[in-house]
Amino acid sequence: MVAVTSKHTQACNLPTLNIGGFFAMNDANGEVTNRYGREIETAVRFAIEEINNSTSILPGYRIKLFSENTHITISRTQKAFFDFVYYKPTKIMLLGTAYSLTAESIASTAPLWNLIQVSYSATSPVLSMHERFPFFYRTVLSDAAANDPRIALLQNFKWNKVGIIYQFESIFLEVVSKLRVELGAVGIEIGTYEGFRDDAYEAVQSLKASIITSIKSMYVTAIPKTNFVLKIIIANFFEKNGHSVMCEAYRQKMYGKNYVWILLGWLSNKWWDKKITSSRYNCTSDEIIAVIDNHFMIDPVRFADANRTVPSGKTVNQVVTEIEDRLGHLPDVLPYYSFAYDAIYAMAYAMNDTESRLANKKKSLAGFNYNDTEMAKMFKESMDNVDFYGLSGHVKFESTGDRIGNTKIYQMQCNTIPVAVVKITIERMSIDLGLFISTGTVAALGVCLAIALL
């Protein structure tokens, strides 16, 4: 277990507020897949130093971080949690975890120790169930927050029929379940709804079959009608499995100007470049790009305006520069460190508010223990009232513990312009009976005259 504190030794005599931090440094096999965990911990360490040097936030205390590697597994995450609570010193709050499944495992356990948990990147809508996870908060937006922007995008382009394909994971099941209801409420038809576990072959085949059926159905009866061919596809998947979706879509020729894919924006930079082969799929990056050309992505806003002032008195641009200077490189994946930085400040503000209220009871934060339900209740109330502008923007929580924030819609564009739908109109054409007789008579006379002249 590694302890991180302020470098300023003059604060060493102050009482400490110990935070247990969960970081994904490597995977279950011990392999470092990227530098994501170190990036997050660097930003957290930076925020702690700022707070420990502040005269307005927790001036009588210093924050101390105890970090554990989750290895992105529930078992290692649970072990880290029990190490935090069974080994001294007492932890006053928990930071993390990075991934939704591991965050959920802690969120169901932490209330038994009266511990507030703040995650910086767990996005599953399941974690919005505050009656089930009453001590859970997050500074990143829930994936369900992408639904309203999706619907706004569809309505803006007057796209009134969509297909949905998603991976069978709890993080996606809850999102698409809510999306189906919300689409129906605004009159947008769901042409097909396909799910898959690891191999998307059958799901993509069904998706293509639904498109063909939509086209064929227009020619069944020759009655006046207008219809739309389903070619707008909302897809939710992890990037590793996204390759199978897009590779099969390429095989099925589900790309070009008549197709629009709408994806989640938290897939890593150039995820399609990562070589993933299997017995069924072996697509090149160019083939994947052919499918996702002009696709839309829905993503949370990760940074406030560059000149916005944050609690330390610095600008967003100054903090970003200092953190990335410490990293020595640009983030490997889409940056989440702004949410981690703001998570530390959210916890600090909540503790600061609680401390002022405890003073009236002649108590202090230093007296917290795992049986202190009164202080835990005060922490929750203070977290509910957190309201500040941080590195990622305005930080405030809903009653569910979800972050109130903004999303952005952006598009990967190459050489084509996306077309929403192909509009096909089928009508029976008729002609006035009198006109038909007179025209027919003239034509018959013409034929007779031609024969007589032979």
Describe the structure in your own words.
- With 454 residues, the chain is of the alpha/beta class.
- It contains twelve helices and 16 strands.
- The chain has a six-stranded mixed beta sheet, with helices on both faces.
- Helix 1 (36-52) packs parallel to helix 10 (337-358), helix 6 crosses helix 7 and helix 7 (239-251) packs across helix 8.
- The longest helix has 22 residues, at 337-358.
- The radius of gyration is 29 Å and the shape is elongated.
- The termini are far apart.
How would you sum up this structure in a few lines?
With 454 residues, this protein is an alpha/beta fold.
Largest sheet: 6 strands, mixed
What spatial form do the alpha-carbon principal axes imply? elongated
* End-to-end distance: 108 Å
Strands, count: 16
State which percent range the strand residues make up: 15-25%
Briefly note the structural class of the backbone: alpha/beta
Order of helices and strands: EEHEHEHEEHEHEHEEHEHEHHHEEEEH
Determine the number of helices (DSSP H or I, runs of at least 4 residues): 12
Across the major sheet, the strand order is 1-3-2-4-5-6
Low-pLDDT runs of 5+ residues are: 223-227, 415-431
Radius of gyration (Å): 29 Å
- pLDDT averaged over residues: 85
Q: Determine the fraction of residues in helical runs and give it as a percent range.
A: 25-40%
